[in-house]
Design brief:
The complex is a heterotrimer of chains A (168), B (271) and C (116).
Chain A: H1 8-27, H2 34-40, H3 50-58, E1 63-64, E2 68-71, E3 75-76, E4 82-88, E5 98-105, E6 112-117, E7 125-131, E8 137-145, E9 150-159
Chain B: H1 2-21, H2 49-56, H3 65-76, H4 86-90, H5 93-96, E1 106-107, E2 114-115, H6 117-128, H7 139-150, H8 166-177, H9 187-191, E3 198-199, E4 202-203, E5 214-216, E6 221-223, H10 225-235, H11 246-258, E7 268-270
Parallel strand pairs in B: 5-7
Antiparallel strand pairs in B: 1-2, 3-4, 5-6
Helix pairs in contact in B: 3-7, 6-7, 8-11
Chain C: E1 4-7, E2 12-13, E3 17-24, E4 46-53, E5 56-63, E6 72-78, E7 83-91, E8 96-103, E9 105-106
Parallel strand pairs in C: 2-9
Antiparallel strand pairs in C: 1-3, 3-6, 4-5, 4-7, 7-8
The chains are: A alpha+beta (168), B mainly alpha (271), C mainly beta (116).
């Protein structure tokens, strides 16, 4: 049976569905307040379940919580820029390597924060970047291995918000 | 939102009561410093480890990287009918501009107005380079201000409040002490009396001007002191003056006097 | 004027797995914030970043609004031979950014010229 590879089409379809709700808000007249909502840290956005976060990628493949180290500050006083580091145990050979990494947010308007594509030429499955977090939430680093199964790690990040809500 | 307003009103009232009870006089003489010089602290001291790391740890991934690169490029760029670049007249920025940022705002001799560094750069560009003017808070002006600041990195702030600057200083002091806006808060209440304490989740700093223009994480952008002051005005729900208003310059002069001896930070990151 | 910075280790030996640091100047406007005049800033983020080494793709990132402004990416590459690193990114406005940087890989035993 051919491996199901989460193709670009699936990715965009997923994003389209996920952001349909958000885009409906964008065009609605009441949307003017959304930036205040995200900035004020109120629980305006629903927390997704773990399954909702990973299912679009994992589908019916094997999923294990192992082999992934995910580092974010446990308390970020600014959600606009949160340093993130992740490392996945993998020999990164042709036969066995990390093919994709998905960084998924529990509360951001857009659940997928970034997708990375790697291969044996990377030598090491280790990436650092800086993410945006809209309020206190769990972050998931989900890695797809070359044999099709998935591994993951999660971390809770508490994000405090500014006292003064800003309009520039 | 109404809950937050209510909390702030109570906070303001409590402060007011506290002030009255402590017999604090709102009229501070020009020589009296609420925060003594040896207790001055940069905003960096109140920042989280994360923010401090962003400023200090790594030049490569600096959030002001683009501003710095752009400033260096603009310094060498020929502009206007003068066909000159900053470099043509001023040579190396680190030589010619050394200490300049540390003594602004200053009264401009030709116009008699109180100029901050941004005003001075704009005037030079318009008068000497004969080039189109950069708007306040434009990318170019922010980058150039950063560029000039690099020449004063680590130098102590020292402005003059004598002579023509005196009346501006006194006006700035008055504004700093005055209650403003719907929330009826003055700068001194938060930044002189409650620095180090928290306004909800925010740790209040002393409100020092030694890092500007900063990269403000909340705005994902470089920002001048004026923009930051306007934000404070908006936060206490005070009426915003026009950009470049003399009130803003006066406050800046007072703040720099208050910050005497604090070292200039370039580039600076704040939340 | 480049709107991106790259950092590599000063000396890369054949067989090394080395770190690449890339910082791109881009606002990564999420579409949820307002500008200085209170006007909502339209979404404009880098949606794809590809790194090739000697024309072979070695790293790809597809960010969304969840990546912070002025994105920083750090990843690793295996040093096989010298060549050219080429970065190309596209944002929502279909603007393209590029950065090229030579990659010099030295033979572990030699101290002469980099391995071609």
């Amino acid at each position: 049976m051919p491996l199901h590879v989460f193709s670009r089409r699936d990715f965009f379809a997923y994003c389209a569905k996920a952001s349909l709700g958000a885009s409906a808000l964008v065009t609605a007249p009441g949307f003017a307040q959304v930036d205040k909502l995200t900035l004020s840290g109120l629980a305006e956005s629903r927390l997704r379940t773990f399954d909702e976060m990973v299912h679009p990628f994992v589908q019916s493949q094997n999923l294990k919580q192992e082999g992934v180290s995910l580092t974010l500050p446990s308390l970020a006083d600014n959600g606009h820029l949160v340093p993130l580091h992740m490392k996945i145990d993998s020999p990164m050979t042709e036969a066995s390597h990390v093919s994709h990494i998905y960084l998924i947010s529990q509360r951001n308007p857009v659940p997928l924060m970034c997708m990375f594509v790697l291969g044996p030429l990377n030598g090491r499955a280790e990436i650092s970047t800086r993410v945006r977090l809209s309020g206190t939430q769990m972050v998931v680093a989900l890695a797809r291995l070359s044999d099709g199964h998935f591994i993951y790690q999660t971390q809770e990040v508490a994000v405090t918000e500014a006292a003064c809500v800003d309009n520039g | 939102m109404t809950e937050i307003l209510k909390k702030k009103q109570i906070f303001g009232f409590a402060l007011c009561l506290g002030l009255l009870l402590s017999g604090f006089s709102t009229l501070v003489s020009a020589q009296q410093r609420f925060i003594p010089l040896d207790q001055l602290k940069s905003g960096l001291d109140y920042a989280s480890n994360e923010v401090r790391g962003l400023q200090l740890d790594d030049d490569f991934s600096s959030l002001s990287a683009h501003g710095i690169d752009k400033g260096a490029q603009l310094w060498k760029q020929v502009a206007g009918s003068s066909n000159k670049s900053c470099e043509s007249c001023h040579g190396e920025v680190t030589d010619s501009m050394k200490g300049v940022s540390a003594r602004y705002p200053a009264v401009d001799k030709s116009t008699g107005k109180l100029f901050n560094l941004e005003d001075r750069i704009r005037q030079c560009r318009q008068k000497n380079q004969k080039a189109s003017n950069w708007a306040l808070e434009s990318d170019e002006l922010l980058a150039m201000t950063l560029q000039v600041n690099t020449a004063s990195k680590g130098m102590p702030i020292k402005v003059s409040i004598d002579g023509p600057a005196k009346k501006h200083f006194e006006a700035g002091l008055k504004l700093y002490m005055a209650r403003q806006g719907q929330l009826n808060l003055s700068c001194t209440q938060c930044h002189d009396q409650h620095h180090g304490q928290r306004l909800f989740n925010d740790k209040l700093s002393q409100g020092q001007p030694n890092g500007y223009p900063i990269y403000r994480l909340d705005w994902q952008y470089l920002a001048s002191l004026e923009r930051r002051l306007r934000f404070c005005y908006a936060s206490v729900r005070a009426e915003l003056p026009a950009w470049g208003h003399v009130d803003m310059r006066n406050i800046e002069l007072y703040l720099k006097w208050r910050a005497e001896g604090l070292l200039i930070e370039v580039p600076a990151v704040r939340k | 004027m480049s709107n991106a910075r790259i950092q590599l280790p000063p000396r890369i030996l054949e067989g090394d797995v080395f770190k690449v640091r890339l910082l791109i100047n881009h606002p990564m406007d999420s579409g949820f914030l307002r500008d200085i005049n209170g006007v909502l800033i339209k979404r404009n983020v880098i949606r794809q970043l590809i790194c090739t080494l000697n024309n072979q793709e070695v790293f790809r990132a597809e960010p969304t609004t969840g990546i912070a402004a002025n994105p920083l990416f750090e990843f690793y590459l295996r040093a096989v031979k010298s060549g050219e690193l080429y970065f190309r990114w596209v944002d929502d406005k279909a603007s393209i950014g590029e950065l090229r940087h030579p990659l010099n890989v030295w033979l572990a035993s030699s101290s002469g010229a980099p391995k071609p």
